[in-house]
Design brief:
The complex is a heterodimer. Chain A contains ten helices and ten strands. By secondary structure, chain A is an alpha/beta fold. Chain A has one domain: Aldehyde Dehydrogenase, Chain A, domain 1. In chain A, the strands form three sheets. A five-stranded parallel β-sheet of chain A has the order 7-6-5-8-9, sandwiched between helices. In chain A, strand 3 and strand 4 form a beta hairpin. By secondary structure, chain B is an alpha/beta fold. Chain B has a single domain, classed as Alpha-Beta Barrel (TIM Barrel), CATH 3.20.20. Chain B has eleven helices and eight strands. In chain B, strands 7-6-5-4-3-2-1-8 form an eight-stranded parallel β-sheet. In chain B, strand 6, helix 9 and strand 7 form a beta-alpha-beta unit. The longest helix of chain B is centred in the last third of the chain and has 18 residues. The radius of gyration of chain B is 19 Å and the shape is globular. Chain B starts with 17 loop residues before the first helix and ends in a 12-residue tail after the last helix. The chains are: A alpha/beta, B alpha/beta. Chains A and B meet through helix 1 of A and loops of B.
Chain lengths: 289, 303
Amino acid sequence: MKRIEILKTYKIYIGGKFPRTESGRYYKVKNKNGELLANMCQCSRKDVRESVVAARKAFGEWNTKSAFNRSQILYRIAEMLESRKAQFTEELQKQGSSKKQAEEEVIKSIECLVYYSGWCDKYQQIFSSVNPVASSHFNFSVPEPTGVVGIIANENAALLGVVYSMAPVIAGGNTCVLLASESKPLCAVSFAEVLHSSDVPGGVINILTGFKKELLEPVASHLDVNALVYYGNNPQEITAIKELAALNVKRIFTYSDVKEESPYNILDVQEIKTTWHPIENIGSSGGGY
Amino acid sequence: MKKTTNTLLPISSPTVDQVGVEERCAKFTSRSIKTETKIQGLKMVLSMIDLTTLEGADTPGKVKQLCYKAMHPHDAVSDLPTTAAVCVYPSMVKVAKKELEGSGVKVAAVSTAFPSGQAPLNVKIADTKFALDQGADEIDMVISRGKFLCGEYQFVFDEIAKIKELCGNIRLKVILETGELGSLDDVRKASDIALYAGADFIKTSTGKISPAATMPVTLVMLEAIKDFYFKTNKMRGMKPAGGISTAKSALHYLVMVKETLGEEWLTNEWFRFGASRLANDVLMQIVKQKTGIYHSVDYFSKD
């Protein structure tokens, strides 16, 4: 007798839980030959709202963890992804990648996590400065996380698009709401399962699936979202994002493709904070800043 | 000491069907409240809030800030109501009273050795007298849960009656601290004792114990108020306090009041929320309804 395959219900990831969309809607994701791969949650603005609330709640805990601990957790995500290489390779193939491409994408994703794991407690030194000022102050600038970041993931890179966009954001102590690729969302949801088993506190990363047309607006206009990173090159979407983001002067970054690993990706969603610390006048001794 | 007039427990409380209560509560959360109705509901919630600060760290400055918030919840939106009252410790009543002068916002003072209620009656009386002398408009007393759990219901009854006698026309809210009572049967029993002993309001919790206000507990207390009304033809108020922090859940409570007691109770004369965080969430939802944009707590005053 032929065994009936047990198919996975792809759900969304909010606040460390896997709910269905509150709207109860779904859309069909098909492969190149038009065969059904999965029914995906078609999220609504209310799911966006729930995710932002979860991300805001998680921000305090994630931001105040030691940089070293964040680094350990990112490394743990890499470990978990490594152990599920086969699953992701298969899922990428289902969505149209060749075996070789799929394997490469998974390995690059794992290495990306290790890369940003290393940067967690190092970017601060690189981007901080002690500034010369013409008064009796010790003046220094340090990067601090922006807060809740909205990420619109790359449409074509099913796994890489998620990992490359998310890793630098959380490495810097931010929390995020990520809209997965509309046509290739399977890996994003499976990646949520990896996150879930990696000591990442619930709410640090929230992953939604659905239509960009519908979800861009609530993410871009939400006043509790502090920055947006958009991967894609649809001029209408970019204009819409920029207009809506102006409401609370969000930081916006738009990239047409997945961005290569770089500590500057962490810096994108950091704010530079400067401190003026009064000191005695030591200029006359020749040793002051 | 003068004997109080109600010396007998006139009541035998009915038992409570816990499963039934929970099912009924689940129904209240499934009502669809949209657009204008929602705005009206949210404003009603705002007008029913007893803005509360009951911390050891309370200072006159903090109380003044809270009073300002009660009078001016969010000046960016016109036509907002004030909150119903501010709720403070007796030592802060004078400060609050001065700040709120002429605004119509009442000052509620917790008393009778809040929050534990573990003090002799003369201390509780002195505590209440002090709050009244300072000018409190409402008194929130706690019952002696220890005595209640020992089965000394008459003691609890007499204590409430005595404090009510002191209060006279000042409205008395009786805090049952349902999180310490154990069962819904006990919640019902304590509600009945409080109502027959002279409480104007019954209130779920101090906010110091978890769980604080929950929907099942509130429903049981509302049912007690309903039965009391049918028996005596007197209206009594209800105040869930603690743990209600979202506008959505506050609306669920309003649905419950309307469907259990009726519209007459949907005013801040008969229904209150004891809360501090709730106010900002309600304001955020009001602004969301008006602008269509999800808001951030960054744009509202902290309290």
